[in-house]
Write a structure and sequence with these properties.
This protein has 398 residues and is α/β, with parallel strands linked by helices. It is built from 14 helices and 13 strands. The strands form 3 sheets. It has a 7-stranded mixed sheet with strand order 2-1-3-4-5-12-11, with helices on both faces. A 4-stranded parallel sheet has the order 7-6-8-9, sandwiched between helices. A two-stranded antiparallel sheet has the order 10-13. The structure holds beta-D-glucopyranose.
Length: 398
């Protein structure tokens, strides 16, 4: 039964990857790499099902097998991950427990300790703060637990075995490219406001790096004027920024992933550099995008082009309503399936197939990299409803 579920998960992952493969992602981990890995995973899972005919695998001993620690219940993104995890694990013999850290690294460490005490063999963790989580995962590692970093990388420790992630540089590139595509050819001096995620989250750097890859040439040639970051202006001629340089820009425009911080930053930027006419805004995710949009939309005569990511239900409604211009769909079903497949393979002693690696500052962590897709008003029906990601009844005006 367990093996059959593994096969189904592998198949779902493959189907998800195929669904994305036609969507024009071109980056370090290519679609074919991802597809090959998923293909291999299916083959392995199929072999495992055949093995099962002969030797029925041990089932759970009643303790918790897989512990999952997510950063906060305050953002729809992570509540959705929990729901998708619970759905994915429902038909397996494994016991799973999900705990939330509520934005607090101390609570996160406590959660990991609670799960260690419950006898987990695999820990899946999305760190609140990449560096701060190192101590927690080291404690797990010392108990022989396999550690899977999920979506966000735990940094500066050797105690991470695998990283299951969306391609975060691609997310930033999709956001930057979207803004560029909205600019009228040949125009210069278009106002660009930059916002970023929390500096404690490695992903914030990857998103920014991707956006900078696309936007920098257009800032350097005068297409865009950055309105709210003196550091971005200072570095406008640098195609590649060091982590420190990115950190300096992020420090000026961070939202800390909090809509309320995004709101107050937007208010102060509107006061110091009032928007007029076409206004381009790099918002790092959906929660902050809605907050920033609502502030800029109060200004007379502005036409807003604003990015996001996560395809949160309220932001899909914003896209339908013509408020938020785009979001990036990171299909959580694929990420969850990748994580659960990896966890179950670990529990069954099988080899893990990966398709990339990420340097976490201490070690190159083997990774499974999942592609992403840009969602706009033009393709929202296909990508969000047609794909079965959300039901149309969640929305009005479709
Ligand atoms: C995730 C995003 C999320 C953000 C804030 C990032 O690490 O990749 O999907 O919006 O954290 O929680």
């Amino acid at each position: 039964m367990k093996k059959l579920v593994t096969l189904l998960l592998a198949l779902t992952l493959v189907l998800g990857v195929f669904a994305f493969a036609g969507c024009g992602n071109d980056d370090a981990a290519t679609d074919s790499d991802v597809t090959d890995v998923a293909d291999d995973a299916v083959e392995d899972a199929t072999d495992d099902v055949a093995d099962d005919e002969m030797t029925e695998e041990d089932s759970s001993d009643g303790g918790v097998d897989i512990g999952i620690v997510l950063p906060t219940k305050e953002e729809p993104r992570w509540v959705q991950d929990e729901a998708r995890f619970l759905a994915a694990i429902e038909n397996t013999n494994y016991n799973v427990e999900v705990l939330f850290s509520q934005g607090d690294s101390a609570k996160e460490k406590q959660n990991v300790e609670t799960l260690i005490a419950k006898g987990i063999d695999v820990l899946i963790i999305t760190p609140q703060d990449g560096d701060a989580a190192a101590a927690a995962v080291q404690a797990a590692k010392e108990e022989g637990i396999t550690v899977i970093s999920y979506d966000r990388l735990v940094t500066n420790t050797e105690a991470v075995d695998y990283y299951i992630t969306f391609n975060s540089v691609n997310v930033g590139e999709a956001q930057g490219q979207y803004l560029i595509d909205q600019v009228e050819d040949g125009t210069t001096g278009n106002s660009l406001y930059l916002y970023a995620g929390a500096a404690t989250d490695n992903n914030a750097f990857l998103f920014f790096e991707g956006a900078w890859n696309k936007l920098q040439p257009k800032i350097a040639d005068g297409t865009f004027d950055v309105m709210n970051s003196s550091k971005a202006v200072e570095y406008k001629d640098k195609a590649t920024l060091t982590r420190e340089e990115m950190g300096e820009i992020i420090e000026q425009v961070t939202t800390d992933w909090k809509p309320e911080v995004a709101l107050s930053k937007a208010q102060s930027h509107i006061t110091s550099a009032p928007p007029t006419g076409k206004t381009y805004i790099l918002a790092p995710n959906d929660g902050t995008a809605r907050s920033i949009y609502d502030q800029f939309a109060k200004e007379e005569g502005v036409e807003i082009f604003i990015t996001g990511q996560d395809a949160e239900i309220p932001s899909i409604q914003y896209v339908i309503d013509g408020k938020q211009s785009m979001t990036v769909l990171k299909d959580v079903r694929d990420l969850v399936n990748g994580a659960i497949l990896t966890a179950t393979e670990v529990l069954e002693g099988n080899e893990i197939k990966t398709n990339g690696e990420y340097d976490n500052g201490a070690v190159a962590v083997p990774a499974i990299d999942v592609p992403v897709i840009t969602v706009t008003l033009d393709n929202v029906s296909d990508t969000i409803i047609g794909s079965g990601y959300y039901d149309s009844s969640e929305f009005t005006g479709l």
